[in-house]
Amino acid sequence: MSAVVIAGAGITGLITAVRCARAGHRVTVVDRGPIPNQGSSSFDQHRVLRALTAENTGAAAALHRRWLGLQALLGGRFYRRVGVVSGWPAEHADAARDAADRAGVRIAVLEPDRLPHIVFPEGYLGVRELDAGVLLAERVLHAAVRWLRGHPAVTLRPWTEVVGVDTAAARLDLADGGCLAGDLVLVAAGAWTRDLVRTDTEVHRQTIVYVRPPAELERWWQHAPTAGGVGDDGTGWLLPPGDGTLLKLSSTTMCRTVSTLAEPDDLDRATADHCRERLLAGPRRYPIVAIKHCHYTVDARTGGAALERVGPAVWARAAVGGDGFRTAPLIADRIAELAATPLAA
Q1: Which residues form the FAD dependent oxidoreductase domain (predicted)?
Q2: At 157, which helix (H) or strand (E)?
Q3: What is d(CA 75, CA 140) in angstroms, rounded to the nearest whole number?
């Protein structure tokens, strides 16, 4: 049995704590705020769970089963299996089918008129993954915390700020003058990880728009899939409303690389209006409820998520956002494996 210390109670920290506790390790999770922390990057209405990605589609497809297992373990209903539609040029539909067949992913190819309230680029088809959908992010965090609180090998320490990490000694230095050492330390403090350990990451700021569908379309949207590669130029994405969530819109063009986590002075209503008009048919029927800026980090070399070794027994997971949320079980597996023989790994 190893002692695993985790800094950060976002999705990576909490799911890793669950996995390590189930593997027989003693686990301590600290966070500078409450647990779960509404200020964490993971705390949101919903995140996408999909398989047809630029990465290993086979591994991504396995995440569908992993999240079903976590839902059964943690209790509650937080995985809405509404499917995910990706916009593909019609001439690439066969390539999509081949990729899905190789990974064992069930898909259906749709004409855009099957989804009349979502804008597709000219000449595109919709490739719908059937074993995919939406993770209700806030519910996931609460379910994980409930499970962890009931486990005798787990200690949760909210309102415990980490001010430094001794990577050689596998130790967290705390704002109150204390410290926490472990056989393995995971720093998973989201966009703030890079303030604690040196990682090769960059910060992105994504503008998100939340809208409410018109009353006459509420039922349609309740059963609508998540969609990506949509909008008039194929750069947009949306997450459907359901179980109390709003319709969430954005695009890759609304993402910027920034040098600071500070919020901009204003939220651009014109940009939000433009996003709504590009992604939705009859956009003026969808009132804008909120506009939000989200900060997340990516590996500066790959543009994706990464787990980085920063000391003999210290690992850092700086990536947050949809990719980081979706792949949290994979990181949890790796940390649990490393905890068995942390220095030899």
Answers
A1: 4-338
A2: strand 154-157
A3: 9
Residue 219 has pLDDT above 50, yes or no: yes
The amino acid present at 142, given as its one-letter code, is: H
Domains and CATH numbers, the chain: 3-340 (3.50.50.60)
**pLDDT value of position 344:** 42
Cα–Cα distances in angstroms (integers) from residue 108 to residues 100, 104, 112, 199, in the given order: 10, 13, 12, 40
Instruction: Tell which residue, 254, 250, 257, has the closest CA to residue 230.
Output: 250
Q: What is the DSSP string of 270-333?
A: HHHHHHHHHHBSSGGGS-EEEEEEEEEEEETTTSS---EEEETTEEE----SHHHHHTHHHHHH
Per-residue pLDDT tens over the stretch 248-276: 999 999 888 887 777 665 667 888 999 99
**219: enclosing H helix or E strand:** helix 218-222
Reading the block at residue 55, the tokens are: 């990465």
Read off the tokens for 105: 């992913």
Tokens 């009353």: give the residue: 215
Q: Within 10 Å of residue 58's Cβ, how many Cβ atoms?
A: 13
Per the prediction, the chain carries an average pLDDT of: 89
3-state SS, residue 122: coil
Q: φ and ψ at 174, to 5 degrees?
A: -105, 155
For residue 193, the one-letter residue type is T
Q: How high is the pLDDT of residue 84?
A: 94
β-partners of residue 108 are 128
Scored b (16 or more CB within 10 A) or e, 12-22 reads: bbbbbbbbbbe
Determine the pLDDT at residue 343: 55
Output the pTM of the full model: 0.91
- Average pLDDT (197-203) is 82
